[in-house]
Specification:
- The strands form six sheets. This protein has a six-stranded mixed beta sheet, sandwiched between helices. Strands 7-10-9-8-11-12 form a six-stranded mixed beta sheet. The protein has a four-stranded antiparallel beta sheet with strand order 21-22-18-23.
- The chain is built from 37 helices and 23 strands.
- The protein is α/β, with parallel strands linked by helices and about 950 residues long.
- Helix content is about 50%, strand content about 10%.
- Helix 14 packs parallel to helix 15 and helix 22 runs antiparallel to helix 25.
């Protein structure tokens, strides 16, 4: 019969480890730092799941201990507890108490002493014990019935030590670790040890003689004179150190095993606390598995036997929680009910909608069902594509719902509505009147939010725990399609997806108004959704034969490069293996990278910037860099693009993420168009694969130096403004200013340096970053920066004022009021870790008003450009990349389209310097650039 199991947790130790291991920006929406609490709670749940203990207790330190009385300098070298950790310890104790577990403390003793006492008592009472801690102090407690689990270099990695593991690591049994530390000391606790006795000597002496007392009893037998001299001089410290490092096992504690039972806890109490801390990801890991509330009644189906079904509500709970969180679900499966639903929708002031489909790709997904809601707490589900169900024909459903969903007078609400709109558009309904998207609203309120998904958002804002899709379709190899989920199970899930956005709207709208974001949301972000949907659905034509030929050419070149690299290093290896490449470069070839950067696993990094720093040290480096660039482009674009061609449209349909960047910029995926190199020959060759259809051309409209124009507007520097007003080459003008030479005499190299300075300062770059970008010495880069600021003093004022504002109010804004928050700049912490994060945040806060304003202006430009379409039939806006819009234009209308697009983009926002747009055309994207 297995022994009962006890888990003992060192609360203080785990809190410290988590605080320094997890990101310092892990905060709630209210700004409460939670990294230590999250790390502790995650570890607690992991151990609870893996070990299935019968008993759990958590120990904490409380003030000074007997060790402080014994040795005044005990732990004197330790830094003061970070101000932002102390309140998290209170929260951690709340977590422990919410699980009805004991928080064990003892005046005059440390948490280690509590662990030692309880572990000793547990062994005596026939329990197996696992001690969970963030350090190795508890290893001395390991025995036949005691193990220790501790986190490794990475917080997420743990290792469990038993007696054998301790012997393997230290060459000593657990109890001798007391003597080991007595000799070598412990800098973290300021344990003196014996000066001059290191790890190797201490281990050898202990293996030979036993304990510290035994070593001193046989001091004359130690042949190594240096060791013997050190021991003779350090006897007093050795004996003191042993007392300090010995964990007490007899602390008077009042806790009983019954107090520690890991059985009953109030799930709702824990859920409420996790909701407050915004730990939704931990809810599914609570002991006992996912919470499944029982239905208060049975769901009904619409059929001809229930003519009044529409007015009846099923009380089945799709949403986990109390009764106020239930979405009453009604399934529509007959003619009469569909007509009644259509009539209600036609009279509704607003409709929340969602779709269930067979794919995350809106251009290929089949419609499985449509969910709708017009009042909070109730939703309808209309199945149309389930494999086994009584359901209405798709055409009939589309005909019944089209009028309401296409009526611009009825406001529409959704979550990530662009996807659902695209799916419905492909099936015959063009949704109009989109008024509110809860995903975009949340992102605008908090660009760094981790709760943009509807399930997380419902939980964090409403306290509603929604069903995860995996509970319906499963995961991995056993995952099924949504079409194969029975209607009775899919309906509550789908209805809640329509209901929850209705509940979220009022809260989000109030906050958008409170933060002066409503106009940006209502006049820019919301109108942009259908514009992006149209662009995605239009897609772009790809020259597949051209890409196939290019792929073959690159494959040959890659093979040639690999052979050359093998010849240079003397043997074959896997160039794509970072570990093997590191072994070759830093092992066999003995190259040295400046800074010697390591990966998370402790290996030498072979990142591109590291390889760049090795240029000139060995001829293989140039080839390795070329191989990496070719392989990346070949895999990411040249081979991937043909596979992304839609079999129906024959075009590639990228997906634009409106809420993908904290600056407000759009991002794209499948393919990611933002990462195609612009200035390299290979990047231009990739762009040639994007072509116009017969009778059309591609037209590129590109903002010229928009971010520098915005910088000039924001800082008000007269020199920059005048240069733009005169239509000068801004980089040449800057070069003339900082080099002190006439504009006509600027060399290409001087312009290159000035360009790096211009963009570097707009991105918050310092002298080190400028040196890296230009190849200059850091001192030389600093001189150029000083000269720049002397000439354009308002830029320096802007930089300093922006940092001051971010530190004072916690955020910066764009020209249209878009915000980005920088809570770390308001933090009181000044340790090395937060200093690095603080410097990065300062660079980002300088850049945010510039780059974010560029994003705002581009979005307005897209809205204005979309209004041109009715004036030029067959004009299509198809791509947006960086500061560029790409259109597919009938050849006959190129001149008119160019004039209208230029006017629309240059008039997007009234800056104090003119916006300028370059327009070019061609049969492919490269020609148009």
């Amino acid at each position: 019969m297995a022994k009962p199991k006890l888990v003992l947790i060192d609360g203080h130790s785990l809190a410290y480890r988590a605080f320094f291991a997890l990101p310092p920006d892990l905060k709630t929406r209210s700004g409460e730092l939670t990294n230590a609490v999250y790390g502790f709670a995650s570890m607690l749940l992991a151990v609870w799941r893996d070990e299935k203990p019968d008993y759990i207790a958590v120990a904490f330190d409380v003030g000074k201990t007997f060790r402080d009385d014994m040795y005044a300098d005990y732990k004197a070298t330790r830094a003061k507890m970070p101000d932002e950790l102390a309140p998290q310890l209170d929260r951690i104790q709340q977590v422990v108490q919410a699980f009805h577990l004991p928080v064990v403390t003892a005046e005059g003793f440390e948490a280690d002493d509590i662990l030692g006492t309880l572990a000793t008592r547990a062994a005596r009472d026939g329990l197996d014990t696992l001690i969970v801690t963030g350090d190795t102090d508890a290893f001395q407690l390991i025995g036949p019935d005691v193990r220790v689990l501790t986190s490794q270099r990475k917080w997420s990695e743990t290792k469990t030590y038993d007696e054998a593991a301790v012997r393997e690591r230290y060459g000593l049994p657990p109890r001798q670790l007391i003597d080991y530390k007595a000799l070598v000391g412990d800098t973290s606790d300021n344990i003196p040890g014996v000066k001059g006795v290191g790890d190797k000597t201490a281990t050898q002496l202990l293996q030979q003689f036993g304990g510290v007392e035994d070593i001193y009893a046989h001091l004359d037998e130690i042949t190594a004179k240096r060791a013997r001299t050190s021991l003779e001089a350090g006897r007093e410290h050795a004996m003191l150190s042993k007392k300090l490092v010995t964990i007490k096992t007899d602390v008077p504690l009042k806790v009983s095993w019954d107090d520690c039972r890991a059985t009953a806890f109030d799930r709702e109490q824990v859920t409420q606390l996790f909701r407050e801390l915004e730990f939704r990801s931990l809810i599914e890991r609570l002991p006992g598995g996912p919470f499944k509330p029982e239905a208060a009644g049975q769901m009904h189906l619409f059929d001809t036997d229930e003519p009044q079904a529409l007015s009846r509500k099923s009380p089945v709970a799709q949403v986990k929680g109390d009764a106020t969180h239930v979405t009453r679900t009604t399934i529509v499966t007959d003619d009469r009910s569909l007509k009644e639903l259509g009539a209600m929708l036609n009279k509704a002031p607003l409709i929340s909608f969602d779709t269930e489909t067979t794919s995350t790709d809106p251009m290929q997904a089949r419609l499985v069902g449509i969910s709708l809601a017009i009042t909070e707490g109730a939703g309808w589900y209309v199945p149309v594509g389930h494999t086994q169900a009584d359901q209405l024909a798709l055409e009939q459903v589309i005909a019944a719902l089209r009028r309401a969903l296409e009526d611009t007078r009825i406001a529409k609400i959704g979550h990530n509505a662009k996807y659902d709109m695209a799916v419905l558009a492909r099936h015959g309904i063009t949704v109009r009147g989109l008024n509110f998207d809860t995903m975009i609203a949340e992102w605008l309120i908090d660009p760094g939010s981790r709760n943009l998904g509807l399930k997380n958002l419902a939980w964090s804002r409403l306290g509603v725990e929604m069903t995860n899709i995996e509970e319906l379709i499963g995961t991995g190899k056993k995952q099924i399609n949504m079409a194969d989920v029975p209607v009775e199970r899919a309906a509550p899930y789908a209805a809640a997806d329509a209901d929850i956005p209705l509940r979220l709207r009022a809260r989000q709208e109030a906050e958008l108004h409170e933060k002066n974001l409503w106009r940006l949301f209502a006049e820019v972000e919301m109108p942009l959704v259908p514009v992006l949907m149209d662009m995605e659905m239009a897609g772009v034509l790809i020259d597949v034969p051209y890409l196939r030929k290019m792929s073959n050419t690159l494959a040959k070149r890659l093979a040639e490069i690999e052979r050359e690299i093998y010849a240079l290093v003397g043997h074959e290896f896997n160039i794509n293996s970072t570990q093997q490449l590191a072994d070759v470069l830093f092992g066999k070839l003995g190259l040295k990278a400046p800074g010697g950067r390591k990966t998370a696993t402790g290996k030498e990094s072979t990142a591109v910037d590291v390889l760049e720093s090795l240029r000139g040290q060995h001829p293989a480096i140039e080839l390795i860099l070329e191989q990496r660039q070719l392989a990346k482009l070949k895999g990411t674009y040249i081979d991937a693009l043909p596979e992304l061609v839609n079999p129906v449209s024959g075009r590639v349909h990228t997906s634009y993420n409106q809420a993908g960047a904290v600056t407000g910029r759009l991002s794209s995926s499948e393919p990611n168009l933002q990462n195609i190199p612009i200035r390299t020959d290979l990047g231009r060759r990739v762009r040639r694969a994007f072509i116009a259809a017969p009778g059309r051309v591609l037209m590129s409209a590109d903002y010229s130096q928009v971010e520098l124009r915005i910088l000039a507007h924001l800082c008000g520097d007269p020199g920059l403004r005048q240069a733009f007003a005169r239509g000068e080459d801004i980089h040449a003008s800057t070069a003339a200013a900082i080099f002190g030479v006439p504009l006509t005499q600027i060399t290409p190299d001087q312009r290159r340096v000035a360009k790096a300075v211009n963009f570097g300062l707009a991105y918050g770059q310092g002298a080190y970053g400028l040196a890296q970008a230009t190849g200059l010495a850091q001192s030389e880069a600093q001189k150029f920066m000083d000269a720049y600021f002397a000439r354009f003093s308002r830029v320096r004022q802007y930089v300093e004022e922006t940092k001051r504002k971010a530190a004072t109010i916690g955020y910066v804004e764009t020209v249209m009021g878009r915000r980005r928050y920088f809570p770390i700049l308001q933090s009181k912490e000044r340790d090395a870790r937060t200093q690095i994060a603080r410097r990065a945040a300062e660079r980002e806060c300088i850049n945010m008003p510039v780059q974010g304003s560029a994003a705002d202006i581009m979005k307005v430009a897209m809205l204005r450009a979309s209004n041109i379409t009715p004036q030029i039939p067959d004009l299509r806006m198809i791509l947006q990349v960086h500061d560029e819009l790409v259109f597919e234009v009938p050849e006959r209308a190129v001149d008119r389209a160019a004039a209208l697009v230029r006017e629309a983009m240059e008039g997007a926002f009234p800056l104090s310097v003119p916006l300028k747009v370059d327009v070019k055309t061609g049969k492919n994207w490269d020609e148009a650039k």
